[in-house]
């Protein structure tokens, strides 16, 4: 089941670029219509037949499966009617077996509101780890969002918990305990003793707040070490609302004369492709003749686009969406910190920079999310593409939306095959017993990058005693999870 269940704890907001327009307003609520019938399945099938990356590989989406899909076509209508629940129809009849990321929503307003930051969160970001040889789970805090409810409580990076509301976490109940509709829950804290997770007496109660937005620029600073000025940026989401602030950060790096950059994408699960291009331009350069990526759609649509002469390449950028000149460092080397939570647009930056820059990846293998998507709704005159300016054109009796994978982004060398993730040049797991303080030069992954920059021969211990091998994390229960979004995919009418 790939439905997103609304009302979850949502600490990070990543936006599809087009919903950020200042003049965009949306109604507070639109009630889903559960009796919409096969028109929902009809919308799903036709949108997927046109856009879905794996359309040629799904028998039910074949162009020859239903030569006639007009209203009244008996074979087509019977096929739709045989699957009366739209979510099950989407999951079981339309998805390719290798698709790990496409999903749906029964309320496009709720989905687009979440893309605009209208949601609830208590601000606690955490990973979940299975206890060896058991079904039990424990969580560890990765960071706390500033100005959130969690930021006012006695909880911090590195703290552990193993129960919620007194119930021990397991692989079958953690979702309902941590990500339910309830606004408040109590964490039962834990500690490591003799190599085992044990309960403590501490309890932390957290409450979700409406409208909490996380600034993805969690930390930016200049570190001077051995006469070298190093820029350090913890960037936790490709959120285009903060593009100007991101550009200002690189302006400060440039003015401060940094010669090395450490980009920390450990907890960045993705977001806007446009923002990924801007960030890469800030690192490497603003030559708009140099290809950053080339999009590849399904075979049928790819041919249509190529035959029409559509340029599917995206180039490095010299301006932000608001017209500000991109502040670029013109670097030929960058150090990027990653974990298994680094996904989609984070991987796009690594892959897109690789033909031009010596990318030194430190940490863990990334997630392996190399496809992009967009929001599709029942707006047939706009080829099902969601547009905030066209909400009045969406069929009023069908509130469903789908977020299917449209294609893959290749880098300038034509490489996009990283389904198993991008492996680090220097492997180093985060250590739950020694997560350190983010931004502290002794924090293990930052220290390892600084060690590489300075070429220090001093003995530093990077032995990991308790590796953070996550089964999932809190960002995977946000509406956008680890998706990568495109702005206005090309349409040939």
Automatic annotation (TrEMBL):
CDD domains documented for this protein: Peptidase_S41_CPP_like
Signal peptide (from-to): 1-21
Peptidase S41 N-terminal domain ranges (all copies): 40-103
Coiled-coil segments on the chain, per record: none
Superkingdom of the source species: Bacteria
Pfam families: Pept_S41_N (PF18294), Peptidase_S41 (PF03572)
InterPro entries: ClpP/crotonase-like_dom_sf, PDZ_sf, Pept_S41_N, Tail-specific_protease
Keywords: Signal
Record-annotated Tail specific protease domain positions: 229-376
Keyword Glycoprotein on entry: no
Protein name (Swiss-Prot/TrEMBL): S41 family peptidase
Organism of origin: Euzebyella saccharophila
Lineage: Bacteria, Pseudomonadati, Bacteroidota, Flavobacteriia, Flavobacteriales
């Amino acid at each position: 089941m790939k439905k997103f269940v609304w009302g979850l704890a949502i600490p990070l907001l990543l936006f599809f670029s087009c919903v950020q327009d200042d003049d965009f307003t949306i109604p507070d609520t639109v009630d889903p219509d559960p009796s919409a019938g096969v028109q929902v399945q009809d919308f799903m099938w036709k949108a997927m037949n046109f856009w879905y990356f794996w359309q040629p590989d799904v028998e039910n989406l074949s162009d020859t499966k239903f030569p006639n899909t007009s209203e009244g076509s008996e074979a087509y209508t019977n096929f739709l009617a045989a699957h009366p629940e739209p979510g099950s129809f989407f999951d079981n009849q339309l998805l390719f077996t290798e698709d790990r990321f496409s999903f749906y929503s029964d309320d496009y307003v709720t989905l687009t509101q979440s893309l605009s930051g209208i949601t609830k969160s208590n601000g606690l970001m955490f990973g979940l780890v299975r206890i060896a040889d058991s079904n039990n789970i424990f969580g560890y805090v990765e960071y706390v969002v500033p100005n959130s409810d969690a930021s006012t409580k006695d909880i911090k990076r590195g703290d552990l918990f193993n129960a919620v509301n007194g119930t021990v976490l397991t692989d079958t109940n953690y979702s309902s305990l941590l990500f339910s509709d309830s606004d408040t829950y109590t964490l039962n804290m834990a500690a490591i003793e003799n190599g085992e997770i044990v309960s403590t007496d501490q309890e932390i109660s957290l409450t979700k707040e409406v409208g909490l937005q996380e600034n993805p620029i969690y930390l930016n600073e200049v570190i001077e070490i051995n006469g070298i000025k190093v820029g350090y940026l913890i960037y936790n989401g490709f959120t285009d609302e903060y593009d100007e602030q991101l550009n200002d950060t690189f302006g400060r790096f440039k003015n401060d004369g940094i010669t090395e950059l450490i980009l920390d994408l450990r907890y960045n699960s993705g977001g806007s492709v446009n923002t990924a291009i801007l960030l890469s331009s800030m690192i490497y350069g603003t030559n708009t003749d140099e290809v950053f990526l080339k999009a590849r759609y399904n075979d049928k649509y790819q041919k249509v686009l190529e035959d029409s002469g559509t340029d599917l390449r995206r180039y490095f950028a010299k301006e932000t969406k608001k017209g500000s000149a991109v502040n670029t460092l013109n670097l030929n080397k960058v150090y990027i910190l990653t974990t298994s939570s680094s996904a989609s647009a984070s991987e796009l930056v690594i892959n897109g920079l690789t033909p031009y820059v010596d990318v030194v990846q430190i940490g863990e293998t990334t997630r392996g999310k190399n496809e992009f998507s967009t929001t599709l709704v029942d707006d047939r005159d706009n080829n099902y593409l969601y547009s905030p300016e066209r909400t009045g054109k969406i069929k009023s009796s069908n509130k469903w939306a789908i977020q299917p994978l449209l294609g893959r982004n290749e880098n300038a060398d034509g490489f996009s095959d990283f389904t198993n993730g991008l492996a680090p040049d220097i492997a180093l797991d985060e250590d739950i017993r020694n997560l350190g303080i983010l931004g502290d030069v002794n924090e293990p992954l930052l220290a390892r990058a600084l060690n590489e920059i300075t070429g220090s021969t001093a003995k530093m211990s990077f032995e990991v005693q308790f590796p953070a091998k996550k089964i999932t994390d809190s960002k995977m229960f946000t509406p956008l999870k680890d998706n990568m979004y495109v702005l206005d995919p090309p349409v040939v009418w």
